[in-house]
Give the backbone structure.
Amino acid sequence: MRIFKRIGIIFVLIDNFLVNFPKKYLFKTRYVLDGKCLKCGQCCKQIYLKATRAQTNSPLFAKISVKWIEWLFDFKLKWIDFEDDYFVFECKNLTKDGKCGNYFWRPNVCRNFPLVDYFKEPVFLPGCGYSAKPRKSP
Ligand code: SF4
Ligand code: SF4
């Protein structure tokens, strides 16, 4: 089963590359990250995956997608936020010293955290070692 998981992650990584390449080199984001990870592990204990209202309200979708994510990423569902439409997970690969036990194969949500998006200012968890600064104009 592990080989299927690895193949699934390889497709996820290709998707991640295609999403991030334009952000870095073509249509650059307004902000860039500053600082570093302090390995507090907070972001691995509460992983918010955005969904739509229809998705969180569909027991069938929730069941299938949660099972898929739990299997592919080694996450475990904590709760569903029906108000703002998030599936909230924790990760089984977080080690006791706050490190990632699956660093090479970690999913996109980890690689892209903290997220720097086009239209919103980046948001950070309290105590996170990262901050954002405006990108210097060329
Ligand atoms: S919350 Fe920030 S400092 Fe803590 S583990 Fe995540 S990225 Fe690192
Ligand atoms: S795969 Fe690693 S970085 Fe991602 S949530 Fe799990 S422990 Fe954290």
Summary: The chain has one domain: 2-134. Residues 2-134 form one domain.
